[in-house]
Design goal:
Length: 403
């Protein structure tokens, strides 16, 4: 007896079948080939795309793990108390206590003991929600949750509570993605939406300087926090002077306090360059973000108040502070939530770069502007594409004499 279409679909999407096929496809390729008519083929699918993005993030991940241990060691030198959490206790039971004499391996492993719990908490949470919605909708399980969990983890401070990680990534995946249809239908970046949620709901837990360094009794100030507190001044400071400034090079390389994967601009630019070479990210968006940031910064440098550190801050410092590099290379280039037309991509990038500087200058209590700038541009991306399409239609009608 021939089965109906609904019976075939029920059998294919039986409980556990999509999950089982998903994990099998991670390690085993399909051995079949098309025997009938010619088909258009492409080697890139969601799994390979997410794998490549993860590889491009690898320099920032590895450096972020090491820098987490390094900043903890520097804090111990400054008189801080060793961390008392379970992560540090687990590290101590295996490798002994972290000390100022600890070598590269111990420093890296110490940072790893804080990064892995954050990442696995985010990964298991996103996987759980993806499984729930895939089963309810009778859809395949996509691999996008790997990158969502990774990007979210890289934006976290080392000492954040894991329940906040679960809460934030749950909001991003469920509210910003799954409620709108899942993979390919979300209009907001899930990782940024989750970060914005906990940023505003629990500001003292996320933005506290005590959360940035994996020790107890030590408050580490980021470069953005130092500028906001008027501890860094840029009066009569030209943008090209940064290249001869040791503090700028330290910020560029990433040897400073900050979120786990945001500090090293060099590592993020190297990974982003590979992302551009593989054409998984569009260079127009990256160029637009840079041009928008530089143009807006120069405008504030010319018109701004010299007593304001933010107004006088040159674009070379905006590039290496906060999560600008991570947002520009990996968040703004999200192919789902950005504009699709080429002029729309330029407009999208320009808006992100300009809004980042405006938020940093206008709101000193929120120096990290790239997060809100990208979310704001996500909302305008469909309108940008619509305007570009309407302009092209009118131009062609006029060119062909149909009006």
């Amino acid at each position: 007896m021939k089965k109906s279409k609904s019976e075939i679909q029920d059998a294919y999407y039986a409980p556990g079948s999509t999950i089982r096929d998903f994990f099998r496809s991670l390690f085993i390729g399909h051995g079949g080939s098309t025997q009938d008519a010619v088909h258009v083929r492409d080697a890139i699918d969601v799994k390979r795309t997410m794998t490549l993005v993860g590889l491009c993030l690898l320099p920032a991940i590895l450096f972020g793990i090491y820098n987490t241990g390094l900043q903890a060691k520097l804090a111990l030198i400054a008189g801080a108390t060793a961390a008392s959490g379970w992560q540090a206790s687990l590290f101590t039971s295996v490798f002994g206590p972290l000390s100022v004499e600890s070598g590269f391996f111990s420093t890296f492993t110490y940072g790893l003991s804080f990064f892995l719990p954050i990442y696995f908490s985010a990964l298991l949470t996103t996987l759980l929600w993806e499984m729930v919605f895939a089963k309810v909708r009778h859809q395949e399980l996509h691999e996008g949750f790997f990158v969502t969990a990774l990007l979210f983890s890289l934006c976290m401070p080392a000492h954040i509570a894991l329940w906040l990680v679960v809460l934030g990534v749950s909001f991003g995946v469920v509210v910003a993605k799954e409620l709108f249809g899942g993979m390919g239908y979300n209009f907001l970046n899930p990782a940024l939406a989750g970060l914005a949620f906990i940023y505003f709901a629990y500001p003292s837990e996320v933005t506290s300087s005590a959360q940035l360094v994996a020790v107890d009794g030590y408050s580490g100030a980021t470069t953005l926090a130092q500028v906001a507190a008027n501890k860094l001044h840029f009066t009569d400071y030209h943008w090209y002077q940064a290249f001869s400034d040791s503090n700028w090079w330290q910020a560029f390389l990433g040897f400073e306090v900050g979120a786990m994967g945001e500090t090293s601009t060099l590592a993020l630019l190297l990974g982003g360059a590979l992302l551009l070479l593989t054409r998984l990210a569009d260079w127009r968006i990256v160029a637009g973000v840079m041009l928008g940031m530089i143009a807006t910064t120069l405008l504030f440098n010319y018109l701004g108040n010299s007593r304001s550190a933010w107004s006088a801050m040159p674009w070379t410092w905006h590039l290496v502070t906060g999560g600008f590099a991570l947002g520009m290379m990996f968040m703004a280039t999200d192919p789902v939530t950005t504009a699709y037309t080429r002029p729309g991509k330029w407009l999208f990038g320009l808006l992100v770069g300009a809004m980042t500087v405006v938020i940093r200058v206008a709101n000193v209590k929120m120096p990290e502007g790239i997060m809100l700038a990208i979310l704001f541009a996500n909302l305008w991306a469909p309108l940008m594409d619509s305007l570009v399409a309407r302009f092209n239609i009118r131009r062609r009608i006029k060119r062909n004499g149909l009006q």
